[in-house]
Amino acid sequence: MDAAPVDTGTGWARALRAEVDGPGGVSAVYVVRPASVRVDASGFDADRRNAAVRALGESIAGEPLERVVLMGDLNASVDDRGLRPPTSRRESARQAGEGLGFSRPAGFPGVRIDRIPTRRAQAVRSWSLPEAGGDHVPVAARLRF
């Protein structure tokens, strides 16, 4: 397995790409956590997050392997247009899920910000895991390649 950080322009590793050998061949797996949207004196600031997400989207668009799994805390709801670069043209594992798939906040999840979009992989099942001590609950999926 080969793994390396993905440059998202933030100056520190917020994404990792690994090649994983599995059923039917090698897949590219991206594990990500882009910067959060922040609130400052002028209101909501999504510029850093959006720039990093665009860079991540470019990396995935240029991905030479056919099969891609993107997983992580995407720090935005499914309707956030800022996440389109890495998630467009990908199938969400949530479509094979149980329940609403909400992952944040951990105590009473009401928004889905942790996701597993794929390219050339089919989600057979997806689910939320029990709280693990953070402010989100983890999500998991069983994929078929």
What does this structure look like?
With 145 residues, the protein is mainly beta. It has one domain: 4-Layer Sandwich (Deoxyribonuclease I, Chain A), CATH 3.60.10.10. The chain is 13% helix and 36% strand. The chain contains two helices and eleven strands, in the order βββββαβαβββββ. The protein has helices at 47-61, 84-87, and strands at residues 2-5, 15-22, 25-32, 38-40, 43-45, 68-73, 91-92, 114-115, 117-119, 122-128, 139-144. The strands form three sheets. Strands 1, 2, 3, 6, 7, 8 and 9 form a seven-stranded mixed beta sheet that branches. Strands 4-5 form a two-stranded antiparallel ribbon. Strand 2 (15-22) and strand 3 (25-32) form a beta hairpin. The model has no long low-confidence stretch (mean pLDDT 82).
Structural descriptors:
single chain; 145 residues; Deoxyribonuclease I, Chain A; globular
Radius of gyration: 15 Å
CATH topology descriptor: Deoxyribonuclease I, Chain A
Tally of structural domains? 1
Helical segment count: 2
Residue runs with pLDDT of under 50 for 5 or more positions: none
Strand/helix succession? EEEEEHEHEEEEE
User: Could you report the average pLDDT, rounded to the nearest whole number?
Assistant: 82
Number of strand segments = 11
Sheet-strand content, in percent, reads: 35-45%
CATH class: Alpha Beta
Helical residue percent?
10-25%
CA distance, first residue to last residue: 18 Å
> What sort of overall outline do the alpha carbons produce when their principal axes are compared?
globular
Largest sheet: 7 strands, mixed
Structural class: mainly beta
The CATH architecture can be given as 4-Layer Sandwich
Q: In the CATH hierarchy, what is the superfamily?
A: Endonuclease/exonuclease/phosphatase
